[in-house]
Amino acid sequence: MASKQFAFLAFFAIVLPAVAMATEFTVGDDSGWTINFDYNAWAKDKVFRVGDNLVFKYPAGQHNVFKVNGTAFANCTVPPPNEGLTSGNDVVTLSTPGRKWYICGVSDHCASHGQKLVITVLDESASPSPAPYTPKPSTPGSANEAAPSTPAAPAPSSAYNGISVSGYQLLVAAMVAVAFLFV
Q: For the whole model, what pTM was predicted?
């Protein structure tokens, strides 16, 4: 009986965190997938990972969604109609890391109204790179020149003594530990 409980708990320790760790992004937030919206600004501070979902919300029949390559994105080249998503509540699961490009293929929505999105998807366990430290240049006689220079603090990291741990790994370890308490 105890081994069945352990197997059951082990299964959920692996499956549940994978589902729970995925993030769902509604493209454009409350504005949804529409024309005359700055999708570059919307995506700028977001971290997209493998397993996350993009949800494109729009009135069905007024827009659509096409996944394209970088060239088609730059030129707003629309693929064949059967490759488009048209439900008005389209969910795209980000299954591989790398650059992803999406456009609206209706009329001139992409070319003239900016209805296009480009994102970079990170691997599940990858951390976003911290912004590089760039000191402000000092000018002679400025306050910056007189102040002693202080080295920049290291960027926050989940690594401890070279060991990198993701939230997913910590959650699985905690669930396995709890499972052993019941065995």
A: 0.63
Average pLDDT per block of 10 residues along the chain, 183 residues long: 58 52 94 98 97 98 98 98 98 97 98 98 75 49 42 40 46 68 69
Distance (Å, whole) CA 182 – CA 179:
5
Report the DSSP pairing between strands 98-103 and 116-122: antiparallel
Matching residue, tokens 């920049």: 152
User: What are the structure tokens assigned to 14, written together?
Assistant: 């692996």
Q: Are 20 and 168 in contact (CB under 8 A)?
A: no
Phi, psi at residue 99, to the nearest 5°?
A: -80, 140
3-state helix, strand, coil in the chain (%, to 5): 35, 20, 45
Total Cβ atoms within 10 A of residue 69: 12
24-26 vs 159-160, strand pairing mode = unpaired
d(CA 67, CA 117): 10
Strands 159-160 and 66-68, sheet pairing: unpaired
